Amino acid sequence: MFPPARILTLLIASLGAALFWALNIPLPFLFGPMCACLIAALAGVRLQSFGQISVAARTILGVAVGASITPDVVSQIPQMMVSVALIPVLILLCAAIGVPFFTRICGFDRATAYYAAMPGGLQDMVIFGQEAGGDVRSLSLIHATRVLILVSLAPILMTTYLGASLDNPVGDPIHALPVSEMGLMVLAAIIGWKGGERIGLFGASILGPMILTAALSLSGFIHARPPAVSILTAQFLIGSAIGVYYVGVTLRELRKTVLAGASFVLIIAALATLLASCVVFLGLAQPLEAFLAFFPGGQAEVTVLAIVAGADLGFVIVHHLTRIIVVIAGAPLLATRILRKHPPV
């Protein structure tokens, strides 16, 4: 049985989704719950995340990405290598600018500053930062703020400047998909998620299902994304989770931590825009795909945006997988060298 705080969170998120849907606002099942839970959290309402249910929702997006990896996408990977090579450049620039910004201007210790500057997944950066002696609460708020602002601004930029439409179908109706394929998707989601966790795969809830579903797609067993209702459910849970991160935030945290995170968003967005513009200038991708490929938001949120915009999901995800791999594999090593040279005072 759900605890009262979780039931209240569900009701508030549902009201937000219903309001945004009634007002015909883009992505109502993502932004409605996110805004409603954010406002409630800042107002002092004691919300509670949906725990493993929210994690399970990410498996749906992993399956959706995996189903989009077809032989045609794989054949195009060599053509993406030049633009993919710019992803490590983005990460190095984030570290080079972000660490001095968070230490000298914002007053954070170096461990917190380093992992706050990294454009990786929220949970991963918090865990790594904690192990390095960083401030867990500050890291959580900084990365939640990054995702919140970027995901909120992205639809405006995509529709206003890139001519994107956000009304593309997110998937087929559930009755239009073969039962056998949906069964395989469910198995891929569960086995990929839990199997990935067992072997220590980072981002197991998305990457595990993605890998298994991609294998099924490349083998010709799956030919469609998960049904629309499942992807909308994933949007709902992900949007709610972003808002819930602000539960218990204090005025001091708003002034220092959240403001620092919001300020750094401008820096990281400028860097991403610069590199995406280079990719477009070189003729390596269309503006929409380049924007999403270098978009420094969370992988789950980027997947949702790419699906509703009808972007080349294969191109976008290859770049984000590279970002995740480089950050996860390289961040602790680089952090060790930086923190050794500059021990905490």
**H/I helix tally:** 16
Per the principal axes of the C-alpha atoms, what is the gross shape?
globular
Query: What is the N-to-C order of secondary-structure elements (H for helix, E for strand)?
Result: HHHHHHHHHHHHHHHH
Largest sheet: none
Number of strands: 0
Could you tell me the radius of gyration in angstroms? 20 Å
Poorly predicted runs of 5 or more residues: none
Distance between the termini: 47 Å
- Strand proportion, as a percent range, falls in under 5%
Average pLDDT works out at 89
| Helix coverage percent | over 70%
User: Structural class of the helix and strand makeup?
Assistant: mainly alpha
Explain this structure.
The protein is mainly α. It contains 16 helices and no strands. It has helices at 4-22, 28-42, 52-68, 71-76, 81-84, 86-105, 110-117, 122-131, 136-160, 179-198, 204-218, 228-244, 251-281, 287-293, 299-309, 313-341. Helix 6 (86-105) packs antiparallel against helix 13 (251-281) and helix 9 packs parallel to helix 15 (299-309). The protein is globular and about 55 Å long.
Short description:
With 345 residues, the protein is mainly alpha-helical. It is 74% helix and 0% strand. Helix 2 runs parallel beside helix 12 (228-244) and helix 3 runs parallel beside helix 11 (204-218).
SSE map:
Blueprint: H1 4-22, H2 28-42, H3 52-68, H4 71-76, H5 81-84, H6 86-105, H7 110-117, H8 122-131, H9 136-160, H10 179-198, H11 204-218, H12 228-244, H13 251-281, H14 287-293, H15 299-309, H16 313-341
Helix pairs in contact: 1-2, 1-12, 2-12, 3-10, 3-11, 3-12, 6-7, 6-13, 7-8, 7-16, 8-9, 9-13, 9-15, 10-11, 13-14, 14-16, 15-16
